[in-house]
Amino acid sequence: MSTLLIAGATGLVGRAALELALADPRFDRVVALARKPVAPHPRLEVWMGDPDLLSGLRPQRVDAVLIALGTTMRQVGGDRARFRHVDHDLVLGIGRWARALGVPMCGVVSAVGADARSAFFYNRVKGGMEAGMRALGFPALHLFQPSILTGPRGELRIGERLGIGLTTAVAPLLPDRYRPMPHDVLAKALLQAALHPGTGVQVHHHAAIRRLADQNTTG
After folding, report:
1. Nearest of 82, 79, 10, 106 to residue 49 by alpha carbon
2. CA distances from 85 to 72, 90, 196, 210 (A)
3. CB 184 within 8 A of CB 156
4. Is the peptide bond preceding residue 180 cis, with omega within 30 degrees of 0?
5. Taking the chain, what is the end-to-end CA distance rounded to the nearest angstrom?
6. How far is Cα 6 from Cα 31, in angstroms, rounded to an integer?
7. What is the pLDDT of residues 106-138, one digit of tens each?
8. How far apart are CA 141 and CA 158, in angstroms?
9. Structure pTM?
10. Which of 18, 88, 96, 143 has the greatest number of CB atoms lying within 10 Å of its CB?
11. What is the rounded CA–CA span in Å between residue 169 and residue 178?
């Protein structure tokens, strides 16, 4: 593969995916689309978009795009419009840019329960985003639907940590797709999809994400 673009490269999953991609010789060049500075690397190019992430996009074609954008209602102060902007509008904006340039593969981090008709706002936004991405017609579109993500976070979220702890404790009793997902496992699965995209729309829940990650580990 020649060039991989990672959007959200300073977040929990995007940062892990970026580190893995830069350590993988199968990627000749890696582009990080971010609002914050990223540590330099010989094969890394940073496209800064601040305050509008989309302003960092350039008319340069890449071979695959991974989108790991996401916020929480707490981070946006309960503002539904701001939440939708990040988890829906920015994702679709990047998708439209990639499709216009003929990028053949796009992988997107969504969430379990994504459904445009859901009664729950979070699930409805994620479902609407997925529907929009499907409509763009990528030759290969991978939608990742993990449950709660575990891993090191840059801020203290007491409620979230309690939720992770509780979910982890009862994980053996939960249906597979609702079990906690380690952030680095998801990152490995994203890279595997970029390297071996196949064709069509593929939706990955917990078990499928782990299978992809295992394939990346074994080469």
Report:
1. 10
2. 12, 6, 30, 29
3. no
4. no
5. 14
6. 6
7. 999 999 999 999 999 999 999 999 999 999 999
8. 34
9. 0.91
10. 18
11. 13
26 contact partners, CB below 8 Å, separation of at least 6: 1, 195
Task: Decide if pLDDT at 158 tops 80.
Answer: no
- Could you report the per-residue pLDDT of 5-21, keeping only the tens digit for each? 999 999 999 999 999 99
Percent of the chain with pLDDT over 90: 79
Q: Residue 170 gets which letter from DSSP?
A: T
What amino acid is encoded at 156 in this protein?
L
Picking from 57, 56, 7, 15, the residue whose alpha carbon sits closest to that of residue 32 is 7
207: left (phi over 0), alpha (psi -120 to 50) or beta: alpha
Q: Is the pLDDT score of 54 beyond 90?
A: yes
Type and span of the H or E element at 143: strand 140-144
